[in-house]
Amino acid sequence: MVLKMSDGMTAEERNAIERFPLVAEEYCRLIDDCGKYNRKQLVQELAVHLARLCEVAVRLPTVEPATVGIDHTAEAVAAHTEEWARLSGNLWQIFGKLDRHWEVFDPTENEEPVSCSLASDIAEIYLDLKDALKLPKSGAALNDIHWEWRFDFHEHWSRHASSALKVMLHISDLA
User: Which end of the chain offers a freer environment for a tag, N or C, measured as fewer CB atoms within 10 Å?
Assistant: First the structure.
């Protein structure tokens, strides 16, 4: 899919906009098919896909949204929660004892680490990417789509991705 570009973007930003939906779709396909992999294969593939996603998403351009805010209905939030529970449960079964890890939310502060779930991180990323992939078909303005992709990465799923990638690299030989 080639999207019409706004003036003033660098070649790197244009490339990121073109690649983001493709890389996001590959990640979602991996999660959809996660039952076809043994744990070691899944951990290795997830590490590759997470690195690729971050490499592309960090290059998404800074744009101003064309419209103000997207409201999420109670039904959409409930569906998101139900899908998250299903996905994280399936992934938890695959990761088993390797699912739990410790994370500090603000690495610039001296904080106590908190217990996190790899399955939950992977599911959160998946759901954000599924929502991102729906945006071009929704009729939303291009600036809204590009703004949402970048905002969701920087404000939410980048934290899950960096945490999960760090864990994946650590457990790759243990899986």
Answer: N
